[in-house]
Automatic annotation (TrEMBL):
Superkingdom of the organism of origin: Bacteria
Gene3D superfamilies (alphabetical): HPT domain (1.20.120.160)
UniProt keyword annotation of Transmembrane present: no
Phosphohistidine carried by residues: 60
PROSITE patterns registered for this protein in UniProt: HPT
HPt domain mapped to chain residues: 21-114
Name of the featured protein: Hpt domain-containing protein
Keyword Phosphoprotein part of the UniProt annotation: yes
Pfam families: Hpt
Amino acid sequence: MNQTPSSPIDLEQLNQISEGDIEFEIEVLQVYVEDVHQRLEIMRGAIASSDHLQVMKEAHHIKGSSSNVGALQIRDLAVKLEELNLEQDGMKAADLIEEMFLHIQSVEAFIAEKLSTVVS
């Protein structure tokens, strides 16, 4: 695993799917971020309406896509969310979702940094 404490992405995993193509990495991460943002919003609404099945479905998807791109911190949060009993831990679920939002912002900063190296 090649994830520095300051990097929200496992660079080895990302390099493996991109075969070293930085522009492809950026594109993959941009699609990933957009998808996760949408799913996090869906989960917020699902928690508000106590739709536990929808929360689990979205968490499962985020877990898989995060594993694929090497966003291991977000993957780990999605795993925790999947393992919760939402009827008992609804507030903890909301906290995990907010934590995922913070981590996705780190991925966005990572993308911006990569973009600056491509443009330079």
